[in-house]
Amino acid sequence: MDLKVPEYAYMFGFLQADGHLSQQSRQRGRLSVELHVRDVDLLQRFQQLTPYNTSISERVRATNFAESHRSAVWRLYALEARTKLNELGLPYGRKSETIAPPHVEFSTRDYLRGIVDADGSLGHSQGYPFISLTTASTHVMTYACSYAEKITGTKRSLRRNQRDGVYNIMYVTEAAQVLVGHLYYPGCLALKRKQTTAAHIAAWTRPVDSKPRPPRIQWTRAMDQVLLAAPTIAHAATELGYSPSACQVRRWKLLHGVVAMPD
User: What single DSSP character describes residue 28?
Assistant: First the structure.
């Protein structure tokens, strides 16, 4: 599994997010991935990429969402394969908080597309495109946000949500369109339904009556000093070239200790 190869980078990202690696006594164990039966073609592609004997089977079971849910399960038992995956960064057992990008050289956008296909979503909400990723791993969140900022110019600073302790990363409108177009390039390995959605996002155009949001203000110490020294909010807004409301919010944060005062 050479992670510089796009297909293996994608496969490894998908396995990190949606695969389960277990071990038992006497070096026994297995890797398994369970998907809805509609996505069995991806498991078949994994089977083709794997130079070991693997199996794909179907099962029907009751879930919280359906009384009769059909799924496909891909299983791999070879010790050599499991050892290689573990060395690359696929932990045994529970892994949602501990996974991290590989320490070896790898194809970044293919790896991240695998993560998104497994634990993310893309589509349209109220007519606007979006791409999102839910992860419990701080390492994955930090890496994904840093990489997306390089591609889109949009910065994200996230905390775990209070309900279930995960990070919810989302990009919308033009940022989503750029990021989706970068990750889901023509001919790449991906879930077919998400590849189709990516094509719809690529064709999106902003409605004529909708204006894009202004870029987020990157406040500096010098700007904070001007804001605090100005006699009124209106004076500060004129000097800094930002709206009075943005200046008022920033001034309130400075005066109430939400952000540090400038030296």
Answer: -
